[in-house]
Input
Amino acid sequence: MSTYLPIAGLMDFGTTIAEYLLRGLAFLVAYLPAPVAKAFEYQFMIRALLTAVIVGAVCGVLSCYVVLKRWALLGDAISHAVLPGVAIAYLLGWPMLIGAFISGGLTALGIGFIQQNTRIKEDSAMGIMFTAAFALGIVIISRIATSTHLMHILFGNVLGVSMSVLVTTLYSGILALLLVLFFYKQFLLYTFDPTHASAIGMRTRAIHYGLMLLLTLTIVTSLETVGVILVVAMLIIPGATASLLTHRLPTMMLISAGVGVASATIGLYTSFRLDVASGGMIVLVAFALFVLAGLAAPVGPIRQSLRRRVRAGHRNGKNAE
Amino acid sequence: MTTTACINPATRPTSVAHAVEAHNVAADYAGILALDQVNLDIQVGRFTAIIGPNGAGKSTLLKLLTGTKRPLCGYLRVCGLPIAEARKANAVAYVPQETAIDWDYPITVQDVVLSGRYGHSRIEGGFRRFLPPAFIGHRHREIAQRAMQAMQIEDLAQRPIGALSGGQKKRVFLARSLAQEPRIMLLDEPLAGVDRRSEGIILEHLKRFVAAGQTVIMVTHDLPTVRDCADWVVLISGTVVGVGEPDEMLTPEALERGYHRGERTPA
Output
């Protein structure tokens, strides 16, 4: 599994960029408080940090669409559906990420196909397709691979990220963000008012599948970091957290990416200190941020009770007069 | 050819006589026909009201015209163009029903109105058309601004759309349609849940739009408004049951024909 991309030159270029990023990140980390900086002295920790930060940012941006389009179940579906692709790629000696993308993409298309050509509703279509794909993956893996391999796919192995995985993550992350930038208008209208999108000549079906494939790309990118089972958390929690705090989509994307990056960083550090699974820790930190945002949001209990107290204060002041 | 007139907004559609032409159009949902044998010509410059009982296929007709649904069969033209080309030419604007929108969506009034210009910005030259709306051209912003002024919502520009009243919401979407500078405006229940003031503003601008030689097609249950404003009425119940001036169509006999046909099982 040494070559992840067919073009060696592209790989080398990516490696160079990744090395610069790693150096820059190490430079920044050195300014953190000493105990934190100490944890990131190891090369593998810095590499894990960069991978987790990329994944956190990309998942954060995409999770806005997942939350707004109510595609939480779809994220779950695709993340499970990559398993057979990973297993088959392992059998054939292909890059894991390519196999994962193909089987995730096929499942996404299959869900759309069932939904549009039968009377089965979307949630059932997802349930059928992703459990079938996941089952196929389990069957194949039970036949071929060692259980550690399965564990890595299911729960991620961010501390063991190799340079080639990091470079692939970097490339697919950049690609995903560029696609969001260039198709911002399409995705905005598709999630907000698809009829208007159609009326002004946008091809809504193409946008639908495009967004599904983009989601697949993101999930595949995050496999190594948080694993199949927990990636869906990174596709829902950051977006949901951001949606509590703002009324504008660009701001929501920034906050959401921030939540993704913060939970990746804090989660990675905590998992290192406590010696627990990093994927799980990252998701727990994201959840903690969500709870904080829920409490502190404009409509959350803290600000509500503050407002009530201020109001009551006014009234008492008037009564005193 | 008449088609070139429709693509280029600079040349007025003198040769296109029909805003909508439908011959033998049918549409279905999973094999169950919602519309069948629809034959309908709507002339350019009509203020058209589409009326009919619930489930008569009114909304399905709008879906066909916006391209969200493909007809099962038949010949359908908008401004003399096939639907796909009419959409690319920004010929059709659509004002959705209130229930069709997620009002918690994180978007401001200004951004909704500006989205009326996306279709135009997509077909202009230069790199900008690929970028997010923050980079949209100055001209588009001006047109959107004027549309907001016309609908008297410029004070609400920065509000999230969820924080508006029913009438204000409708005016936002009408402003989006005005900003689109379409040839046909489709409206799904534009006056449902709308206060008096908003109703006045909306109807006034729809009348102006028609006076400028464009076409309005409005689905509604509000017969008094139809009598006051529309100059053409299409009565639908699974198919086109009647077409004519409001005076002929809003008679008890004609309405009876439309509203009772739907309750019978189709032959």
Q: What stands out?
A: Chain B touches chain A through 40 residues (CB under 8 Å).
